[in-house]
Amino acid sequence: MVAEQQATEILISAEDLALGYPGSAAFPKATGGGTNVIEHVTLKVPRGAIVSLIGPSGCGKSTLLKAIAGLVAPTAGTMTVGGTTPAEAARRRQVGMVLQDATLLPWKTALDNAGFLLSLAAPELGRTEIRARAKENLRLVGLEGSEDKLPRQLSGGMKQRVAIARALTLSPEILLLDEPFGALDAITREEMSYLLLDIWERTGKTIVLVTHSIDEAVLLCSDVHVMGARPARIIDRVTVPLPYPRDPRSFDDVRFRETEAVLREHLLASHGRAQAPQRAAANRGAA
Amino acid sequence: MQRPSQFRILDAAPSLVLGLILIALWEAAIHVFKVEVFVVPAPSAIALSLAQNAGLLAQATLVTAEEVLVGFVLSTLVGAVLALLIVRFSLLGRALYPIIVLFQTVPKVALAPIFILWFGYDLSPKVVLIVVIAFFPVTLDMLAGLQSVEPGLIALMRSVGAKENDILFRVRIPNALPHLMAGMKIAITLSVIGAIVGEFAGASAGLGYMIQFASTQLDTPLVFAALIVISVVGVVFYYLIELLERAITPWAPKFDPAHQH
Asked: Is residue B208 part of a domain?
């Protein structure tokens, strides 16, 4: 598995990366400008992989994702996406991003919301073409027949599907998701996970997912990058030894439980330095 | 999604019943305590005055309604344009906003005699007074609407190469429309006040002028009659804006004063 991935092309690459926010223009110091959120991060994502960044709150996983999307510029180190800078890759529509909130425009229908970013990125395509692409992607996320609904007529899960369709309509190579199902109930979450697996299998996109759910990370991903806070860094890369396609039965697989246990131990260890290793050791003893 | 209209009539029933009870109590109290008509007229006396002076009141209403309408439209334009300038040109905004806020502390009613001095007795001093009184809530609400756009979406738009004008025209302005409507509802009530104050300060026609004239004659029923007409004018304008709101922002949640869903 590892050898196989090394043979494929690395699409997203970060070397000794440091990230920070410039802060607001008016008050850079007061709004946290000039301080790095993460430092010394190295990350490689092969083309076509589905990987996640997992870690405690405040470990900078969302910031790292935003850097891949070109929304946050590195303060040190290098980051390349498809051989170019993240900002350039975003302008070339190589990256589609889904945020925790669907951030749909309430006055636009599902169809127009799905086509909105493409209409900004490539107005030269024309309204008809943009709508055709948006419609196709709404079908891909299972919203056929809801094209003319306004966001307030959609459930939380459906809104998030529109947000995924909006990202996919850009025809990106990379799909980035920042805790995309964090605001949804447990059953909807799981449904959305299968939807994402389905999209990945059908489109072959490279997917990077930020989550704080161990279950979600193991179910979806081939590789899980575990991040720790204070200092924010990548602690480990855990490969999930489960074959695709994955489905609800994957939860019962002993390899699923094992990977989950490893990740839990990592996260507990990263949470508090003093007690966590002991707790992790006790767990190991019990097992 | 909209409730059927018969429920809307039922919704109004409690207010109607309460209103009729209050009017009946008022009428009874005047007769029981034998209050002089020039102090507090009974509802029946006011109704009689309304009927007798219908022609005069109608003429005055046209004058005042014109002042309110022109003043209100200009207030909305001035208020909205100021908000757009503040958001679009941040340096100008930072310079302008404190001055606008400072201007709000001026008691604008006291400016009425000055405007009469500058602009004469006809429409223009009333319109200027209305704009000065009513543009501020429009500016404030419009600003809130222009700025309450999800930062995540703005970041996504910028990342695919959207320009500031794209963000302004395709997201900020549509997002601000429901807020603008809320500001306009406040502005219309302030516009009615502005017109009446303007007429008090100096006028030869209008409902405010009529109130002042009637009170010098101790014709209190006519004062009340004119007051009722002004209130009706205000309510009609207010609901016209609600209709406009439903037409141009159908996606926005309906304003529901009693929080009933």
From this structure: yes
Q: How far is CA B144 from the centre of its chain?
A: 19
Sheet strand arrangement including A36-46 = A36-46, A10-20, A74-81
Q: How many residues does chain A have?
A: 287
Size of interface A-B (CB pairs under 8 A): 52
Cβ pair A120:B150 closer than 8 A: no
Burial class (CB within 10 angstroms; exposed 0-12, middle 13-18, buried 19+) of B247: exposed
- Model pTM score: 0.83
In chain B, what residues touch A87 (CB-CB under 8 Å)?
159
**Contact at CB, A121 and B252, closer than 8 angstroms:** no
Q: Is A206 helix (H, G, I), strand (E, B) or coil?
A: strand
Min distance B33 CA to chain A CA atoms (Å): 57
Three-state secondary structure call for residue B195: helix
User: Which CATH number characterizes residue B105's domain?
Assistant: 1.10.3720.10
Which pair of structure tokens corresponds to residue B180? Answer: 């603008």
Q: What is the pLDDT along chain B (261 residues), one digit of tens a residue?
A: 444 445 567 778 888 999 999 999 999 999 999 989 899 999 999 999 999 999 999 999 999 999 999 999 999 999 999 999 999 998 999 999 999 999 988 998 899 999 999 998 889 999 999 999 999 999 999 999 999 999 999 999 998 989 999 999 999 999 999 999 999 999 999 999 999 999 999 888 999 999 999 999 999 999 999 999 999 999 999 999 999 999 999 888 776 666 554
**Residues B207, B195: Cα–Cα separation, whole Å:** 9
Burial of A286 per CB tally in 10 Å (0-12, 13-18, 19+): exposed
Peptide bond into A231 cis (omega under 30): yes
Q: Which of B155, B160, B249 sits opposite A91 (nearest CB)?
A: B160
C-alpha A46/C-alpha A4 separation (Å) is 10
Residues in chain B, how many? 261
- SS3 call for A225: strand
Which residues does A75 contact at the CB level (< 8 Å), separation at least 6? A18, A19, A20, A36
Task: From the options 3.90.180.10, 3.40.630.30, 3.40.50.300, 3.40.190.10, give the CATH code of A2-94+172-286.
Answer: 3.40.50.300
- Kindly report the nearest CA distance between residue B223 and chain A, in angstroms: 46
Cα atoms in the Cβ-side hemisphere of radius 13 Å centred on A187: 0
Which residue from A44, A48, A28 is spatially nearest to A202, judged by alpha carbons? A48
Longest CA pairwise span in chain A (Å) = 63
Q: Is residue B8 part of a domain?
A: no
Contact A222, A264 (CB under 8 A): no
Cα–Cα–Cα angle for B49, B54, B57, nearest 5°? 95
Question: How far apart are alpha carbons B21 and A15 in whole angstroms?
Answer: 79
Chain B residues in contact with A66 (beta carbon < 8 A): 155
Residue B147, chain A, CB below 8 Å: the answer is: no
